[in-house]
Design a protein that fits this description.
Strand order of the largest sheet: 3-2-1-8-9-11-10
Largest sheet: 7 strands, mixed
Shape: globular
Strand content: 15-25%
Structural class: alpha/beta
Order of helices and strands: HEHEHEEEEEHEHHEHHEE
Number of strands: 11
């Protein structure tokens, strides 16, 4: 899946495109986006430790704008549950029942992080459209999209990719809600891996299978 995801980005992205990397973690895809477009890349990372690594990785890249902030459907801030270095990428707003999945991992800290909506961020920064919006926020993808309803309604997000899996359910979200929101605004959804179903194991957290999806207007 990771190979398919990177292949998609390399084939889709072109010179000068505007990319938003929501849930940039330590910047691996942020740098790929920058290399593929040489255009503006807006990267968002909520976790302090991940953001510090993102800042180091992108230092000197003048076309990358990094934001130590959570993207959500409100501007009241969020509580982020942070895992240790080995599982730093799992940091999430969700209170995950990992023990019930047979996973012996627990958060080591909680961080209070400011938040913003994509509608407001684009308004403040004079951004008219987004060529690619990539969302990987450990279950809170629906909240990110709810904060971009104006952009979606006006079809100013031309393509988006988003993560789905157990964390979707752990956050209290469902595939049906994601589908309804995107289809309401005229977007078509497919699994990023050709031939694989959308929202595999969509019945519950116990059956959900990790996947990345693409939505286009």
């Amino acid at each position: 899946m990771e190979i398919a995801e990177r292949r998609f980005y390399r084939e889709y992205l072109h010179e000068g495109m505007i990319v938003f990397d929501v849930g940039a973690h330590i910047g691996e895809l942020t740098l790929l986006f920058s290399h593929c477009t040489n255009g503006p890349v807006h990267a968002f990372e909520a976790g302090r430790a991940s953001f510090e690594r993102l800042a180091t990785a992108t230092d000197g890249q003048s076309n990358i704008m990094i934001n130590h902030i959570a993207v959500s459907d409100h501007e009241n801030g969020i509580e982020l549950r942070v895992y240790d270095d080995a599982y730093l990428a799992w940091s999430t707003q969700a209170d995950r029942p990992l023990a019930s999945y047979g996973i012996d991992v627990t958060p080591i800290a909680t961080e209070r992080v400011p938040s913003i909506t994509l509608d407001r961020y684009c308004e403040r920064n004079g951004i008219a459209h987004i060529d690619l919006l990539k969302i990987d926020v450990e279950g809170a993808e629906l909240q990110v999209l709810r904060g971009a309803t104006r952009l979606l309604a006006e079809r100013r997000i031309r393509c988006l990719t988003f993560e789905y899996g157990q964390t979707t359910f752990d956050m209290g979200n469902t595939p049906e809600e994601l589908e309804a929101l995107l289809e309401h605004h005229g977007y078509t959804i497919r699994n990023l891996v050709d031939g694989d179903p959308t929202f595999p194991g969509r019945e519950s957290a116990l059956t959900a299978q990790f996947a990345m999806h693409i939505a286009t207007a």
